[in-house]
C-alpha cells in the first residue's frame, strides 16, 4: 500500500542561490537529526550521489542515499533519494526538483514527492505508514524553514514580484 507526501513551495530567490543553499543545508543546528552528509562522488557531466546519516526517533545511523542531477543551462536540479536502512521492513523514496519559476524567473519552485511503504507488520502497516507520513511532512516543513533561514542569511530579503 504506502502513503505519499507531495510538496510544492516557491522560494522568492534565484535558482542558483536556492541550489547553493540546498547543497549547504546539512548538517545544521536547526535539525539535529542529520548528523553527517558525505559526497561519495561528484561528476560535472551528469549526476552526483551523496550519502547521509540521520538519527530518527533516537535511532542512530539511519542511512540515506541521494543522487542529484544539476543542469545550470536549463536551471533545474533533480534529486532522488531512498533509505538504505530497514529495507526489509520499509521503503522510503523521495523525488525532488528545483526549477526556475514560471511565475517569475527570479524565483525557484521546489516540488517534492515522497512515498513510504511499511511491510511485515500486518494490520499495523497502515497505522505505521500514517505515522511515518506525519513524520515526513514535519521533516519537509523543517527543511523548508532551514532553506528559508539560510537564504535570508546568505542573500538577504526575498525578491519581490
What does this structure look like?
It is a single chain. With 161 residues, the protein is of the alpha+beta class. It is 25% helix and 42% strand. The protein has a seven-stranded antiparallel sheet with strand order 1-7-6-5-4-3-2. A hairpin with a 6-residue loop joins strand 5 (76-83) and strand 6 (90-100). 17% of the residues are buried.
Question: Concise description?
Answer:
The protein has 161 residues and is α+β, with helices and mostly antiparallel strands. It has helices at residues 15-23, 124-155, and strands spanning 3-11, 34-39, 47-56, 59-71, 76-83, 90-100, 108-118.
The poorly predicted ranges are 50-57
- The number of distinct helices, counting runs of at least 4 residues, comes to 2
Percent helix range = 25-40%
Strand tally is 7
Structural class: alpha+beta
Give the topology string: H per helix, E per strand. EHEEEEEEH
Q: What's the alpha carbon Rg, rounded to whole Å? A: 16 Å
What is the 3D form? elongated
Hey, roughly how much beta strand do the residues contain?
A: 35-45%
The largest sheet, given as strand count, sense and whether it forms a barrel, is: 7 strands, antiparallel
The pLDDT mean sits at 81
Spatial strand order of the main sheet: 1-7-6-5-4-3-2
C-alpha end-to-end distance? 42 Å
